[in-house]
Amino acid sequence: MKKALVTGVTGQDGSYLAEFLLDKGYEVHGLIRRSSSYNQERLEDLLTEEEANALLNNSNFHLHYGDVTDALNVTRIISEIKPDEIYNLAAQSHVRVSFDMPGYTLDVDAKGTLNILEAVRILSLTEKTRVYQASTSELYGKVQEVPQKETTPFYPRSPYGVAKIYGFWITKNYRESYNMFAVNGILFNHESERRGETFVTRKITLAASRIAQGKQEKLFLGNLNSLRDWGYAKDYVECMWLILQHDKPEDFVIATGEMHTVREFVEFAFKHTGIHIEWQGDGIDEKGINKETGEVIVEVDPKFFRPAEVEQLLGDPTKSKTLLGWNPTKTSFEQLVQIMVEADMRKVENEEKVKVMFD
């Protein structure tokens, strides 16, 4: 039985990856930060009750207190587990927040990666342990070519992107310096019903669900013209695994090869709640109107603009498709939005039931 260590296991990608690996017959170890609340609470909030029970009651799933910023702790845990595979998904991954917390973002996203690689090296596990580093399309930032592929020059436009660029290059450096099987998966935007509620896609699907059920009046957003390559996180974790099964360590772009605006995401989200949006105005004066009622339900708020905007990201998944046999469009863009909206419609309905119960 192979052993895998997953950092960031309580996040969107980590939870899907843990389930995927368990289905593959792995013994899965997840790193979880200590807090004053019940340590499994984050997973229980993220998953449905059925999913949480299946994961947390699986005898091959184990949680360990730890933090990638604590080098001694990371080394001790890796020493105890001696994993065959490490998936480093731990990160401060909110781009806008990275402008407010650049130091913390650096500690987690850059130094955290180094701590894992160095632990594998000093424990003499370089022959046994394969390391996957979750890189990001934010490395490309002010894009130098369209679409972006493995050879496209980087130009990050946020503290998050800059911290992740260190994670990318230190992974490549350890691979070349110590002959480690250490690789980067350059993930473009990937979403799901488990996405954090502060991320724009989940913010949109939750707001659309609440507006449709009369529990919210408006949705306020930043740049509606931003173009992104959006895929389904559940599909993307399969590609992470495939990268570590490849016969040699290489870096891969993980993307769909399709690009959509934030405006399109909004339209599809409301469409799946039964509301059709019409747009009026331009720039910060642009508004989304409920076609049937004439109500303004979407507005632009400049406070959500980034200090340095990334206008478009479009990945080229050719290498992942041809060398790994991965299907990047297993779930279409519209199917992704529909999955998220249907989950949030149920969530909003259940919120009301809980409120009524306690009232």
Verbal overview:
With 359 residues, this protein is of the alpha/beta class. It has two domains: 3-187, NAD(P)-binding Rossmann-like Domain (Rossmann fold, 3-Layer(aba) Sandwich); 200-228 and 260-309 and 331-350, Alpha-Beta Complex (UDP-galactose 4-epimerase, domain 1), CATH 3.90.25.10. It contains twelve helices and 15 strands. It has helices at 12-23, 41-46, 49-56, 71-81, 95-100, 102-122, 159-178, 200-212, 233-245, 262-271, 318-324, 333-358, and strands spanning 3-7, 27-32, 61-65, 85-88, 130-136, 182-187, 190-191, 219-221, 227-228, 231-232, 252-254, 260-261, 277-280, 287-290, 296-300. The strands form four sheets. The chain has a seven-stranded parallel beta sheet with strand order 3-2-1-4-5-6-11, with helices on both faces. The longest helix is centred in the C-terminal third of the chain and has 26 residues, at 333-358. It starts with a strand and ends with a helix.
What's the total count of β strands? 15
Mean pLDDT: 93
Order of helices and strands: EHEHHEHEHHEHEEHEEEHEEHEEEHH
What are the low-pLDDT stretches, counting only 5+ consecutive residues below 50?
none
Keywords:
Rossmann fold; UDP-galactose 4-epimerase, domain 1; single chain; 359 residues; seven-stranded parallel sheet; four-stranded mixed sheet
In summary, what is this structure?
This protein is α/β, with parallel strands linked by helices. The chain is 43% helix and 17% strand. It folds into two domains: 3-187, NAD(P)-binding Rossmann-like Domain (Rossmann fold, 3-Layer(aba) Sandwich); 200-228 and 260-309 and 331-350, UDP-galactose 4-epimerase, domain 1 (Alpha-Beta Complex).
